[in-house]
């Protein structure tokens, strides 16, 4: 099994096992190292990193005690780590880079493509978003609540 914070979506939802699960876990670990924070149920590090990345503020993800001591080249390297981490946590295993590609990206500080929004970042604003309201023939409403659970 494993810690749910490192579990790839395909394993958590369907129990599908693949080598790309390790890539997903590596991406989470990379984001944790850069930020100095853990990906937990009460703090979604991946969603936080994505939000900052979309706002072009990804360096705000860095641990402030580390960020304040970095030179420009080190900040660029950290930015690369964040982008690679986000590539590694893509929803579909086919969208994640293989580890043989990840290592050169990290060492050459070049990310060849932009990450897509990871599945864990899909906004759900209120529980009402998960509800379907259906009117029966008597004019009464029936509420159906879908509750998704991982394995």
TrEMBL record:
InterPro entries: Kinase-like_dom_sf, Prot_kinase_dom, Ser-Thr/Tyr_kinase_cat_dom
Family annotation (Pfam families): PK_Tyr_Ser-Thr (PF07714)
Domain Protein kinase stretches: 1-112
Highest rank taxon of the organism: Eukaryota
GO molecular function list: ATP binding; protein kinase activity
PANTHER family: PROMASTIGOTE SURFACE ANTIGEN PROTEIN PSA, PROTEIN KINASE DOMAIN-CONTAINING PROTEIN
Protein name: Protein kinase domain-containing protein
């Amino acid at each position: 099994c494993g810690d749910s914070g490192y579990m790839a979506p395909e394993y958590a939802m369907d129990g599908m096992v693949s080598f790309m699960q390790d890539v997903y876990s590596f991406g989470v670990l990379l984001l944790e190292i850069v930020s100095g924070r853990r990906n937990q149920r009460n703090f979604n590090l991946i969603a936080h990193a994505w939000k900052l990345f979309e706002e072009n503020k990804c360096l705000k993800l860095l641990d402030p005690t580390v960020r304040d001591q970095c030179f420009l080249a080190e900040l660029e390297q950290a930015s690369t780590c964040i982008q690679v981490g986000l590539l590694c946590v893509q929803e579909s295993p086919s969208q994640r880079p293989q580890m043989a590609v990840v290592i050169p990206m990290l060492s050459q500080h070049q990310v060849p493509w932009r990450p897509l929004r990871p599945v864990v970042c899909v906004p759900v604003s209120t529980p009402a978003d998960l509800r379907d309201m259906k009117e029966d023939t008597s004019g009464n409403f029936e509420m159906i609540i879908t509750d998704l659970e991982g394995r």
